Every structure is written in C-alpha cells, then in structure tokens.
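[step 3/7] inverse_fold.run input=structure_tokens len=282
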C-alpha cells in the first residue's frame, strides 16, 4: 500500500509539472506569433519602421527671382545660393566673349548694341574717358553669377539679386571720372570721387547708406567678413570693394591698365592689411 501511494503521488507531480510547462510554452508561443504577425516583412527578426521625417528645403535650390530682378532673364537652374563670389584672383585677364544684354526701359533684357565710336577721341586717353563720360551708361547684364568688365563698365550677373545689380550699375556711373580727394563726401554728386566716396556711391545705388562714409568708418560697416556678393576692404587710409567677382577701386594696384580714378579692376591676389566687411544680407 505504501509503494502504490508513493507511485501515485509521484505521477501526479510529474503530470502537474508537465501541464505547467505546456501552459508556459503556450504563452511564449502565442507572444512570438503575435509579434511576428505585426512585424513588417518576413523572417524571425523584424526591422523597426523608420520614423517619418520632414524634408527641409535644400540650400542649393535657387530662390524664385522676379524678371525685374534679373532683367527679364530667369536664373540658371541649379545656381548655388551659398557659393560666395570670389574676393581674390590669380589673373588680370578680364577678357569676356560671351553674350551681353542691356536692361531696357521696360525692364527686359535685350541684346546689347555697342555704341558707334566717336569721331573725336581724346588723345591722352585713347578716347576711353571721353566716350564713356559723354554717353549715358547702359545697364549691362551677363548670364551667370559673375560680373564682367566690358569696355570699362561692369555688367551685372543675371543671377545676382536686384540689390547687387543696382550697386554695380551705380559704380558704372563713376567710370571716367577723376580721383578727387574728398570727392563724393560733401554730396552724392561730385565731379570726382576718392576711394571711400566711390564705395559709398556704389552702395547708395541700393540705398544702403544714408550718407557717405570715409575709409575708417567702413571698418565697422555692416557685418564682419566677406559677403556672398559684396565685400568691402577698409583701413585708415584706403577703401575698395568687390562685387560679384570684380573690384571697384581708385587705386591701380594689381591692375595692368594703371588707370587712375574709380574703375572696375581685376581682383587682387591678396587683400592683406584691410578690415573685411560686407553689407548684411549681401
């Protein structure tokens, strides 16, 4: 009787343990099946879905520009807004052979027609000053992001903002005038301009200055460092500026023409000794 009792008890324990194991196994199996049912794809390992993201506008996407800002010609697709205009150059060759346009009175870009050569030329200058000063300055345009010097005038790049184009065309109004110390400081209109007077006049083309500034004042003008389009170099004795890859300067340094007075010139190979500033936003 004792042997039979022990045997029955043992069997009951074994059966109970087996039932518990089955129940435990069943729960685990159900959990795994539910996970597999809700996981994407197939296989025993589920890959979690990537979180949704919002794509921000690319900095390389060109902004919409009105025809008036580009002379009626739309910017070239793919223009990189963040690419800054150069402020130094390693060549003085400014020859340009590409297409040239002129901003018409109706705000459209039309092919530029070069004026006829005057019959009477100033022998001292080869006609350069006489022909440029005697005629109204055309508002020249060229494709791309870089300004070009054409017969002494700067042609504004079509991809530049309207403010930059106005600065360039204001600088063109000075071409052919002489250097006069203090010129351009007593009044915006002057028979000649000095270095800071020339820079002031060009910036005034987009109303960026309420009054002319001298070279020392330009050391604290606008923002620090070079701009995307316009950069000003100033110290206590001189000031000049670069706009879209060309230099407006009264000094003939690093300019093979050696012409005096406010001129568009090649970029210098270096700009040491100057405080670097730029108009905010340009």
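[step 3/7] decode complete -> sequence:
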């Amino acid at each position: 009787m004792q042997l039979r009792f022990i045997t029955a008890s043992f069997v009951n324990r074994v059966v109970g343990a087996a039932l518990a194991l089955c129940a435990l196994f069943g729960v685990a199996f159900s959990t795994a099946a539910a996970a597999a049912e809700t996981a994407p794809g197939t296989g025993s390992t589920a890959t979690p879905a990537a979180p949704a993201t919002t794509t921000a506008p690319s900095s390389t996407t060109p902004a919409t520009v009105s025809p008036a800002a580009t002379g009626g010609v739309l910017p070239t697709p793919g223009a990189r807004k963040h690419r800054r205009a150069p402020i130094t150059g390693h060549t003085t060759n400014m020859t340009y052979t590409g297409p040239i346009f002129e901003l018409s009175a109706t705000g459209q870009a039309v092919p530029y027609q070069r004026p006829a050569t005057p019959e009477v030329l100033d022998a001292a200058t080869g006609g350069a000053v006489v022909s440029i000063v005697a005629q109204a300055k055309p508002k020249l345009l060229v494709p791309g992001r870089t300004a070009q010097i054409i017969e002494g005038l700067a042609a504004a790049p079509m991809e530049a903002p309207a403010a930059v184009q106005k600065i360039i065309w204001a600088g063109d109004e000075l071409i052919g005038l002489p250097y006069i110390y203090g010129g351009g400081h007593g009044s915006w209109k002057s028979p000649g301009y000095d270095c800071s007077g020339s820079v002031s006049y060009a910036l005034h083309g987009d109303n960026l200055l309420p009054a002319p500034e001298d070279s020392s004042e330009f050391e604290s003008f606008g923002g620090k460092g070079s701009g995307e389009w316009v950069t000003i170099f100033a110290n206590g004795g001189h000031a000049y500026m670069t706009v879209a890859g060309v230099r407006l300067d009264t000094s003939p340094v690093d300019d093979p023409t050696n012409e005096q007075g406010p001129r568009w010139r090649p970029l210098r190979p270096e700009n040491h000794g100057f405080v670097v500033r730029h108009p905010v936003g340009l």
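[step 4/7] annotate
DSSP finds four helices and eleven strands in the chain.
The helical segments are 2-38, 128-134, 162-172, 195-204.
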